Amino acid sequence: MTLDSLRSYGADVDDGLQRCMGMEDFYLEMIELGLADDRFENLGQVLKDNNMDEAFEMAHALKGVIGNLALTPLYDTLCEVTEHLRKKDAMDYTQAYAKLMEQRQQIINL
User: Fold this and answer.
1) Which of 7, 19, 56, 73 is most solvent-facing, going by the fewest CB within 10 Å?
2) Is-contact 87 14, C-beta < 8 A?
3) Can you give the pTM of this predicted structure?
4) What pLDDT digit, counting tens, does each position of 54-77 carry?
5) Phi, psi dihedrals of residue 92, rounded to the nearest 5°
């Protein structure tokens, strides 16, 4: 993963670097840690169990982590999921979760 590949993905690298005091290695390390967060996998199970309150808490926490890393496309998807969960929308979250995980994997593959 490089800053250029993150930019191509759509990340706001300049913002992410600013949050990491301009330290590229630290920023990239924080991205790896953020993407490795267990809440990504756990969210899928909680959604299957239809536990909207716990799913909201997980999605909201992930939104904060990913937002701080300025991973804009993934952040936008998390915002969408979080807002549906906040309203406790009765919907099938399968596609939204699949999109979230696909975007996460795209970054991991950079």
Assistant:
1) 7
2) no
3) 0.88
4) 999 999 999 999 999 999 999 999
5) -85, 115
